[in-house]
UniProtKB/TrEMBL annotation:
It comes from Luedemannella flava. This is MFS transporter. PROSITE patterns: MFS (PS50850), SUGAR_TRANSPORT_1 (PS00216). The chain crosses the membrane at residues 21-41, 61-78, 90-108, 120-140, 152-175, 181-200, 212-230, 236-259, 280-303, 315-336, 343-364, 376-398, 419-437, 457-478. InterPro entries: EmrB-like (IPR004638), MFS (IPR011701), MFS_dom (IPR020846), MFS_trans_sf (IPR036259), Sugar_transporter_CS (IPR005829). Coiled coil: none annotated. Keywords: Cell membrane, Membrane, Transmembrane, Transmembrane helix, Transport.
């Protein structure tokens, strides 16, 4: 079946909605879940992959960062490709490529191959994710229907990361860590024929040239920034290598802004960012991604290395976070058209921050029910309130020509935030743990564990601060009312 199969055309705001939009939502949701899961599904498998492939502890985080970095770094280009080449065609290419990259990673025989495969997953995820969100934007034009659609998408964005920890634990313990990657192949094979049949094609019209210099600058800038943060964990924040990479990143990203301001066909039109509501949504998404994704690694090591949980038990221990997400996502979807985004997102950020702060109270011998469970429930509940309105606000009033680019920024801000969060919080935790052990020289394994957990405590506290700042950003910048949320991104050509 041709990738250009287009069962419908929507040329004006008054056009009838696409008849199979809910079936299309199901396909988009399943495919998006595959991408979101892979941000965390390898977390619990990481100790086993390290042992199997001989990956050094200092390089282990690249199993996570290689994915989030390429994903976040290329999302802007992926959004423009979706706009210009066709959102359905880009979505299908992303699904196929993601499955192939997953196969390469699942069959990897050394660390370098696994890192490369994870990076390739990020490349194709950068095609799939913005195309998915842009398709939702053009398929759902009614305010209430759009709120429900974004509720599903938001629940997947927040809950999928938590579910990835559970699924990763089950696959690692009962099958093999490699299936944390190989599982994407049957999902893609099932989703692909339905994707070809149910999704309509849509694309932007007018100037559709690509901004290659912008794509190179922003990608290299983000890579340099994350690598600089990573080197800080090894060499310190004041080392020449750390400062050099962060400085180069600042220069490249500044050059990117200048190129975008002067380009006639920018990768990221600055008009997408300068809107108060959208800019606030993107900045809060960056902070949320840094705080949430950056802290998930601590839970993995705390459960398995400190508490001695099996992979399955470690995965199941995170399940209350997913329960909180899905519970609040349903509530947020119902309240969004009535209460607006600012109230929900502000409350969500503060609730999530309080949950993360509770996690900073964990200790070597504290109980799961007393110290971990309350924090996970609050964290998940807050994230649901954050992510459901986020996608909607991030696309308020955006020109149809820029739908893919604006969608990409939503995903990019979260993934780049996650990459920076992993590097930053890991650096903070290692530094705090090292300082603790220097002041309190360990006499036995228990003393070492106490130093490690102290690092986790500090890392969770920093993550809570990032989430709280994200809530403040929402309060200050987001002013979109219910009428603006109804407007969405406008109608675009489908066909």
């Amino acid at each position: 079946m041709s990738l250009d199969t287009a069962p419908a055309r929507l040329d004006t705001p008054a056009a009838a909605p696409y008849g199979r939009r809910w079936a299309a939502l199901a396909i988009i949701a399943v495919s998006q879940l595959m991408v979101v899961l892979d941000a965390t599904i390898t977390n619990i498998a990481l100790p086993h992959a390290q042992a199997d492939l001989g990956i050094a502890q200092s390089n282990a985080q690249w199993v996570l960062t290689a994915y989030t970095l390429t994903f976040g770094g290329l999302l802007l280009l992926g959004g423009r490709i979706a706009d210009y080449w066709g959102r359905k065609r880009t979505f299908v290419t992303g699904v196929i490529g993601f499955a192939i990259a997953s196969a390469l990673g699942g069959l990897a025989q050394n660390g370098a191959t696994l890192f490369a495969a994870r990076g390739l997953q990020g490349v194709f995820g950068a095609l799939l994710a913005p195309a998915a969100l842009a398709l939702l934007t053009v398929l759902f034009t009614d305010a209430r229907e759009r709120a429900k659609a974004f509720g599903v998408y938001g629940a997947i964005a927040a809950g999928g990361a938590a579910l990835g920890l559970v699924l990763g634990g089950v696959l690692t313990e009962y099958v093999d860590w490699r299936w944390c990657l190989l599982v994407n192949i049957p999902v893609a094979l099932i989703a692909l024929p339905f994707t070809l049949k149910l999704l309509p094609e849509s694309r932007a019209h007018g100037d559709t040239r690509y901004d290659v210099p912008g794509a190179i600058l922003v990608t290299l800038g983000l890579v340099s920034l994350v690598y600089g943060f990573t080197k800080a964990a090894e060499d310190g924040w004041t080392s020449g290598v750390t400062l050099t990479f962060i400085g180069v990143a600042a220069a490249l990203l500044a050059a990117f802004v200048l190129v975008e301001a002067r380009s006639s066909h920018p990768l990221l039109p600055l008009r997408v960012l300068t809107d108060r509501n959208r800019g606030g949504a993107y900045l809060s998404s960056l902070l949320i991604g840094a705080g949430f994704i950056g802290s998930t690694l601590f839970l993995t090591y705390y459960f398995q290395n400190i508490l001695g949980y099996s992979p399955v038990k470690a995965g199941l221990a995170t399940l209350p976070m997913s329960a909180g997400v899905f519970a609040s996502a349903g509530i947020a979807s119902a309240l969004l058209p009535k209460a607006g985004a600012r109230v929900l997102m502000s409350a969500g950020g503060l609730i999530a921050a309080s949950g993360m702060l509770l996690l900073s109270r964990i200790g070597v011998d504290t109980g799961y029910a007393s110290h971990v469970l309350p924090g996970l429930l609050l964290l998940g509940f807050g994230l649901g309130f954050l992510f459901v309105p986020l996608g909607n606000v991030a696309l308020v009033g955006v020109d149809p020509h820029d739908a893919g680019a604006a969608s990409a920024v939503v995903n990019a801000s979260q993934q780049v935030g996650g990459s920076l969060g992993v590097a930053l919080l890991n650096t903070v935790a290692i530094s705090a743990g090292t300082a603790y052990l220097e002041k309190n020289p360990p006499m036995d394994a228990l003393g070492v564990a106490e130093g490690t957990v102290h690092g986790f405590q500090v890392g969770f506290a920093w993550a809570a601060a990032l989430l709280a700042v994200g809530a403040v950003v929402v309060m200050v910048f987001i002013r979109a009312g219910r009428e603006q949320l109804k407007g969405g991104a406008g109608a675009v050509h489908i066909g």
